[in-house]
Amino acid sequence: MISASIVGGSGYGGGELLRLLIGHPEVEVKQVTSRAHLGEYVYQVHPNLRKRSQLKFSDPATIEAVDVLFLALPHGAAQKKINEYAALGKKIVDLSADFRIKDTALYEKWYGEAHSAPEWLPKFVYGLPELHRAEMTGASYISGVGCNATAANLALLPLVQGGLIELDAPTYIEIKVGSSESGAEGNSGSLHAERANVVRTFSAFGHRHTAEIIQEMGMTNASLTMTAVDLVRGALATVHATVKAGVTNKDLWKAYRAAATENPFVRLVKEQRGIYRVPEPKIVTGSNYADIGFELDESNGHVVSICAIDNLMKGASGTAVQCMNLMMGWDETLGLEFTGLHPI
Fold it and tell me: How far apart are CA 60 and CA 74, in angstroms?
């Protein structure tokens, strides 16, 4: 077994990560830090962990060396102390946005400030296995992924990898999100406060996760909008694009089936009958699956591609564990076998 610790374990993302690591057959969790909850049992903040862990929150200053160090801090915090963390963790998985963007100018444009440790950016592998699986094997540093970017990138994956759309053509991406996004990446989050805002559109244009779509999909003309809906967990990306001339439904079936075959957590959902004929966030709740689907109007080339994920799992902590598995040379599905609940 390997040793692992979590720096910043009181938020939704840190709690979900702890839940997964406690149940992982090859991991022993040593420490979980939180200044705000110092000395409290982790289950007092994450009540689902009662009788699952007797760990107490530690002071970040007392963190000890481990095999894998997970950073679940607010954006901007990890980069300021990355040299200290690198001395403590043989391998690091950072759930925040600090090391996702490789181009410093792109980072500054979308995050509004210069990066504090630009020399570290090329050392991190972008943390989406469906795009960088080979690079993760044996890697020492892996970044987190944006939950909205993950839903968008996986919806785009078959279209881009199949060469079915023009990368510089206008592409419109609308994402419906649940209230847990408020604390998915290091903040404690207030569920009740967020639920009061579930009906409003909170990002018309310019969401910073657009930078990950530009970087990973090579799309410079993508427009990302987000709307909060009455969900706690979940993100549903709906992509509107235009396929290249001559592309047919048969070509799309081939591309989407290939994506589902090549990636253990990607499932193609395109049914002719029944209630769940298209991807639905509730079906993947608590799981690391990403359900994708599509519809094509062959008369005008308009394609709609859909991806549903649990933002705390495939959009954050589940993918982080998947990345750790690849780093360690294990089966990438290890500890992530939960299939979700139905009905919910």
Answer: 14
CA angle 75, 216, 206 (to 5 degrees): 55
Q: Verify that 22 and 151 share a domain, yes or no.
A: no
Same domain? 299 vs 158: yes
Active-site choice (92, 93, 136, 147)? 147
- Domain span at residue 119 reads 2-145+313-328
CB atoms within 10 A of CB 272: 5
For the cut 50, the answer to whether the pLDDT of residue 60 exceeds it is yes
Tell whether 168 and 271 lie within a shared domain.
yes
Identify whether residues 180 and 244 lie together within a single domain: yes
What pLDDT, in 10s, does the model give residues 233-284?
999 999 999 999 999 999 999 999 999 999 999 999 999 888 889 999 999 9
- Helix (H), strand (E) at residue 45: helix 42-45
Judge whether residue 183 has pLDDT over 90.
Answer: no
Q: Which two three-digit tokens encode residue 31? A: 């420490």
Is 147 annotated as catalytic? Answer: yes
**pLDDT of 185:** 37
Residue 165 sits in the same domain as residue 252: yes
pTM (whole model) above 0.90: yes
Quick one: 154 and 18 in the same domain? no
